[in-house]
């Protein structure tokens, strides 16, 4: 039962698998992915809403289409693509963390999310920024970004979680043990004629903690009424 | 700063022309990277997948069959079962989850509530739990001598244990409970963060006018959150149409395909059976078509124009 | 002014990001790429050894076996083996994705494939596998292993572990119900059902645990007669399949009389016998270590041959699970084949340590005369469990598993639900046959 054998389970876990490497890889992937996802997604979400034109609305709707196909359907062409990339530049080809990261950082999901939240953003602030002589990017970084702190906090939680738990793509694109991530490691643990459930559950607890901590830290930004005070 | 703001003092016509030009040009810069990235990593493979859906055969032995795969769908009872199941999940689960998530986020947004952080984390935790653990827990809870049955027996609500996982109807209920448990906290985050962007003074004004908290919820919170409600319902619709994890890990599609989802069928066609990637791609495009139709309706209902 | 400042800021961000991505990925791929080259491409290392990679699942079993093989390898080609561990379902996905994408990048030299899936891989990707029949003698292996591992007369797989089944039972419960070991040897499934009724009546224990979503027990019953869901030429064989019909009748009788403890996953299945709930476990021999994991039941277990279906030519032996090694048709294939032939293909001593160190029973027949196979297992009251299993193994009727085992089973399991709730057996099989023919023409 959990608790009584915790120390033993931990010992077995560290003895049987290289959980340190897997944690490290998952952290590298999740942190880079979260950072880039937020930056690229919010730039686009802001762009689509603030500089709204018919043409951009059309492009936005087309981008949304990319959310609708099951990933399993595009996995094989994507693998072939990275196979071809491998021959040109092995640094971002198959079996590199870069290949695990790249297709996940630009998603219609976060563009959509930021666009919908930008609808709630007081657009007078943009005009105010222009009058103050800020450049358009300046307005984005100096006014929009600090004002939308809670939106970024929510996006960070989701992006980190998605990346941390991402399974299918890392599974097919990462091969060597040095590149293993946490979900793959857990999947391996349960894969025998005689699985050790104590060890599996211990690994799962370790795997769940980082996202829970990220959530706990980020949710503190969700404080009612904070928004009104950040008028520029 | 004062130098630049001088340029804003030009005639009105000039400035409108300037902003309009800028609006278009700068706007494209903001979205350029995303358009390129999604084009490369999603649309290019999507086109390939579509071409694949015009072929059929096992593994690498593919032959061009035109739209035969699409015709085959109509006579495929397993596909029709998976489609029906998925729609049942969608119709029951998405509204329940959205309402629950809204309810929790408003409740947990109250600044006077103690241990808010703890409650929020507790509701969010299911979303981060590893699938392996999640599946073990659910199979344990809903097993024949599991906790749920013991509870129901103890309360004298049932006489004999219910076969939650091996009865076709109850297994669907179990899956719906499982999805709701896992994803309510996830949707709650979107509402919680959006609630911070609602101007607090609106509530104060309403209170002065004597509006009850229920009235405030329906006349301030819901309208203000409309963009996010639209977002979550579309995202949840897509998520449910692509439902895979829960079915795969809790019931494995059973008993006898009664919980099979479309995505799980795609998985079976690609990996569990002798692979037919062409037909699997065809089934994937059915999901795309369905989501496009449903999202279009949702955008219309939400009146996205405002 | 603000304009310039934010441009600088923007440039800074871009520079920072580029540096971060390059640092993270570059640093990693330096290690990664050398492996990828060595793995898929069969490159050579500094000391001239050929590097080969192998994919397998289960650290305590297959991976351990590979490690052992690596130690005992003494062939001419210098080999450096890298073992990559993935769950079985994961390997199936990775292999399918890689092979169907047309790029062999990242694919391993050696891969373990479950026997029931092998034909679907061999036929789906005709040029992807390398025939290795020249590297070992197929006659040294249990006959039932050959049809699943070969195609068009060419041998592609090197047979590995056996899924030879046994009827593991609790001696105390069966004794209480009035049965001795001799009463349980070479029985039929019909007798098994009767015994189950006695056990339930006299001890209150269900005879066995089953997951209603897993029809493994039907396959075990069917194979005792050498039949399957499909015939050798791939024709779907449900409606006139007499063994399947009888097996289903037994299955329903077990269910209807409450002789089965229903479980919904593997951990519950294990718990069903570890807790002393059920009286027997008719399953592949690989279940033995899980039975032995419960030390308090030491001496209370024994194993009898698998019951057979009451039919002409049926044997008291069957199979559940088991896999074989395959070599992919990429650089390094000769070295990989030589490695397999030298170890799993011909080394009887290696099989002795495989048994003692890993607990794996191979399908290499000469090995069963070795000393390790004679071991008397105290847990099973001193029975020579391994030796008996290896004898049953040689009697397992040959079956061509074909390409559609799992597909047909999904269709069948939907129909079985209806059979259990009253639909007639003839209709059940006829409907399943029609559906399967429509799906797998």
From TrEMBL, chain A:
Gene3D superfamilies: MetI-like. It holds the Pfam family BPD_transp_1. It is found in: Cell membrane. Residues 23-218 form the ABC transmembrane type-1 domain. Keywords: Cell membrane, Membrane, Transmembrane, Transmembrane helix, Transport. GO terms for cellular component: plasma membrane. Its main location: membrane. The chain crosses the membrane at residues 22-46, 58-79, 91-114, 197-218. SUPFAM superfamilies: MetI-like (SSF161098). It is a multi-pass membrane protein. GO terms for biological process: transmembrane transport. Belongs to the binding-protein-dependent transport system permease family. This is Lactose/L-arabinose transport system permease protein. It comes from Gracilibacillus ureilyticus. The lineage of its organism: Bacteria, Bacillati, Bacillota, Bacilli, Bacillales.
Automatic annotation (TrEMBL), chain B:
The keyword Transmembrane applies. Pfam families: BPD_transp_1. The keyword Transport applies. CDD domains: TM_PBP2. The chain crosses the membrane at residues 25-44, 87-109, 121-142, 217-238, 277-297. InterPro entries: ABC_transporter_permease (IPR051393), MetI-like (IPR000515), MetI-like_sf (IPR035906). It is a multi-pass membrane protein. Signal peptide: none annotated. Keywords: Cell membrane, Membrane, Transmembrane, Transmembrane helix, Transport. It is found in: Cell membrane. One of its GO terms (cellular component) is plasma membrane. Belongs to the binding-protein-dependent transport system permease family. PANTHER family: ABC TRANSPORTER PERMEASE PROTEIN, INNER MEMBRANE ABC TRANSPORTER PERMEASE PROTEIN YCJO. This is Lactose ABC transporter membrane protein. It comes from Gracilibacillus ureilyticus. The lineage of its organism: Bacteria, Bacillati, Bacillota, Bacilli, Bacillales.
From TrEMBL, chain C:
It comes from the Bacteria. Residues 28-47 are annotated as: Disordered. The keyword Oxidoreductase does not apply. Keywords: Signal. Residues 1-23 form the signal peptide. InterPro entries: Bact_solute-bd_prot1, SBP. This is Lactose-binding protein.
């Amino acid at each position: 039962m959990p608790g009584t054998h915790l120390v033993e389970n931990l010992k077995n876990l560290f003895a049987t698998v290289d959980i340190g490497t897997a944690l490290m890889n998952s952290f590298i992937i999740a942190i880079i992915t979260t950072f880039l996802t937020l930056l690229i997604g919010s730039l686009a979400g802001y762009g689509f809403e603030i500089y709204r034109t018919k043409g951009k609305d059309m492009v936005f709707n087309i981008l949304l289409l990319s959310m609708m196909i099951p990933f399993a359907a595009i996995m094989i062409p994507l693998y072939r693509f990275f196979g071809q990339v491998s021959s040109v530049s092995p640094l971002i080809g198959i079996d590199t963390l870069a290949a695990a990261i790249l297709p996940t950082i630009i998603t219609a999901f976060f563009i959509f999310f930021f666009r919908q939240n930008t609808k709630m953003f007081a657009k007078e602030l943009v005009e105010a920024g222009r009058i103050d002589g800020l450049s358009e990017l300046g307005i984005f970084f100096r006014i929009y970004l600090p004002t939308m702190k809670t939106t970024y906090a929510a996006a960070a939680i989701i992006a980190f979680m998605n990346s941390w738990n991402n399974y299918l793509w890392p599974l097919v694109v990462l091969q060597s043990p040095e590149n293993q991530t946490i979900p793959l490691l857990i999947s391996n643990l349960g894969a025998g004629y005689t699985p050790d459930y104590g060890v599996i559950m211990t690994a799962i607890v370790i795997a769940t903690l980082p996202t829970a901590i990220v959530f706990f830290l980020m949710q503190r930004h969700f404080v009612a009424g904070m928004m009104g005070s950040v008028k520029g | 700063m004062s130098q630049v703001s001088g340029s804003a003092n030009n005639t009105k016509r000039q400035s409108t022309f300037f902003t309009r030009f800028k609006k278009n040009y700068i706007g494209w810069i903001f979205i350029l990277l995303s358009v390129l990235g999604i084009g490369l990593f999603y649309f290019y493979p999507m086109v390939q997948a579509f071409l694949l859906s015009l072929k059929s055969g096992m593994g690498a032995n593919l032959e061009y069959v035109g739209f035969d795969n699409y015709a085959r769908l109509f006579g495929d009872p397993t596909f029709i079962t998976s489609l029906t199941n998925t729609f049942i999940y969608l119709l029951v689960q998405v509204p329940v989850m959205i309402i629950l998530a809204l309810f929790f986020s408003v409740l947990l947004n109250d600044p006077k509530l103690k241990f808010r952080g703890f409650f929020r984390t507790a509701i969010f935790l299911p979303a981060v739990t590893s699938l392996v653990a999640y599946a073990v827990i659910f199979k344990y809870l809903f097993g024949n001598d599991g906790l749920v049955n013991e509870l129901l027996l103890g309360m004298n609500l049932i006489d004999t244990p219910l076969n939650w996982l091996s009865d076709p109807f109850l297994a669907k209920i179990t899956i719906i409970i499982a999805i709701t448990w896992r994803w309510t906290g996830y949707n709650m985050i979107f509402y919680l963060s959006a609630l911070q962007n609602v101007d607090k003074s609106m509530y104060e004004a309403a209170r002065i006018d004597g509006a009850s908290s229920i009235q405030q919820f329906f006349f301030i919170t819901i309208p203000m959150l409309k963009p996010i409600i639209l977002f979550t319902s579309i995202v949840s619709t897509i998520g449910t149409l692509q439902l895979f994890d829960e079915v795969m890990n809790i019931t494995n599609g059973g008993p006898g395909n009664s919980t099979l989802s479309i995505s799980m069928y795609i998985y079976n066609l690609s990996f569990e059976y002798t692979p037919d990637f062409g037909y699997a791609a065809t089934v994937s495009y059915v999901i795309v078509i369905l989501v496009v139709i449903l999202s279009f309706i949702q955008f219309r209902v939400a009146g996205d124009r405002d | 002014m603000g304009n310039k400042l934010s441009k600088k800021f923007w440039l800074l961000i871009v520079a920072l990001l580029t540096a971060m991505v390059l640092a993270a990925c570059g640093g990693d791929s330096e290690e990664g790429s050398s492996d990828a080259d060595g793995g898929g491409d069969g490159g050579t290392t500094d000391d001239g050894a050929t590097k080969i990679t192998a994919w397998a699942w289960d650290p305590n079993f297959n991976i351990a076996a590979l490690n052992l093989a690596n130690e005992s390898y003494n062939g001419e080609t210098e080999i450096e083996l890298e073992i990559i561990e993935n769950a079985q379902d994961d390997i199936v996905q990775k292999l399918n994705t890689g092979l169907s994408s047309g790029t062999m990048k990242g694919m391993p030299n050696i891969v373990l494939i479950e026997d029931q899936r092998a034909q679907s891989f061999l036929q789906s990707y005709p040029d992807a596998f390398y025939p290795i029949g020249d590297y070992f003698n197929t006659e040294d292996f249990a006959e039932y292993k050959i049809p699943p591992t070969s195609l068009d007369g060419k041998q592609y797989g090197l047979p590995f572990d056996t899924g030879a089944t046994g009827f593991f039972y609790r001696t105390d419960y069966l004794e209480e119900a009035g049965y001795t070991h001799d009463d349980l040897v070479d029985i039929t499934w019909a007798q098994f059902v009767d015994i189950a009724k006695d056990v339930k009546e006299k001890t209150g224990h269900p005879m066995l645990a089953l997951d209603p979503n897993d029809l493994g027990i039907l396959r075990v019953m069917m194979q005792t007669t050498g039949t399957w869901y499909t015939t050798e030429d791939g024709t779907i064989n449900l409606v006139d399949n007499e063994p399947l019909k009888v097996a289903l009748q037994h299955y329903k009788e077990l269910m209807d009389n409450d002789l089965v403890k229903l479980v919904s996953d593997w951990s519950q299945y294990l718990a069903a016998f570890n807790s002393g709930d059920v009286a027997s476990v008719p399953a592949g021999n690989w279940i033995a270590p899980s039975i032995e994991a419960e030390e308090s039941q030491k001496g209370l277990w024994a194993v009898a041959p698998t019951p057979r279906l009451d039919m002409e030519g049926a044997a008291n032996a069957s199979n559940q699970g088991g896999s074989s090694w395959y070599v992919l048709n990429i650089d390094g294939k000769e070295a990989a084949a030589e490695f397999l032939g030298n170890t799993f293909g011909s080394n009887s001593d290696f099989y002795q340590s495989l048994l003692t160190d890993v607990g794996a029973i191979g399908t290499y027949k000469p090995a069963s005369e070795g000393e390790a196979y004679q071991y008397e297992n105290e847990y099973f009251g001193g029975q020579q469990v391994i030796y008996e299993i290896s004898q049953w193994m040689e009697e397992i009727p040959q079956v061509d598993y074909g390409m559609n085992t799992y597909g047909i089973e999904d269709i069948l399991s939907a129909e079985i639900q209806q059979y259990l709730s009253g639909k007639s057996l003839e209709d059940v099989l006829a409907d399943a046959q029609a559906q399967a023919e429509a799906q797998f023409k």
